[in-house]
Amino acid sequence: MTKHRWKPNVTVAAVIEKDGRFMLVEEETSAGLMLNTPAGHLDPGESPAEGCAREALEETAHRFTPTALLGVYMARARSASQDVTYMRFAFCGELGEREPGRALDHGIVRTLWMTPEEIRASAARHRSPLLLQCVEDYLAGRRHPLSLVQVDPSVHG
Asked: CA-to-CA distance for 129 and 132, rounded, in angstroms?
């Protein structure tokens, strides 16, 4: 008898705030245009912080340097065709310069800056139920040192 081993999908997300507004991406999905923080799947050979910096660059064309871990979050997406659990490592940090000429990742329509009130009011368009929780945790001042996530050298080798 073969058992299926359950494995969550590991994702990383950048919560980027400037002057009271948060940078979000608007992306094409099967459910239409949705909003999310710059986020995506962790790739082999990278730490969660490295993956977050890469995803932010791919989705916003801006360099991003994680400076703190906001938290680790889990959510489950169920439909008739799938049942997927996501484990998200969310980081806040410093937004760097935009890379001139860099195209946004496939499916990303644009970046936009929204206030917390606008984010709360647009909940029906959130791609992830974790978007608002991450923003609220940021606003509540939650910050954990990057060293909280230990990465063994074998990950990179």
From this structure: 7
Contacts of 138 (CB under 8 A, 6+ apart): 15, 17, 22, 70, 92
Would you give per-residue pLDDT tens digits along the chain (157 residues)? 567 788 899 999 999 999 999 999 999 998 899 999 999 999 999 999 999 999 999 999 999 999 999 999 999 988 878 888 999 999 999 999 999 999 999 999 999 999 999 999 999 999 999 999 999 999 999 999 999 999 999 999 8
CA distance 25 to 2: 41
Instruction: Look up the pTM and report it.
Output: 0.92
Domains and CATH numbers, the chain: 9-142 (3.90.79.10)
For every residue of 19-73, which 3-state class applies, written as one string?
CCEEEEEEEEECCEEEEECCEEECCCCCCHHHHHHHHHHHHHCEEEEEEEEEEEE
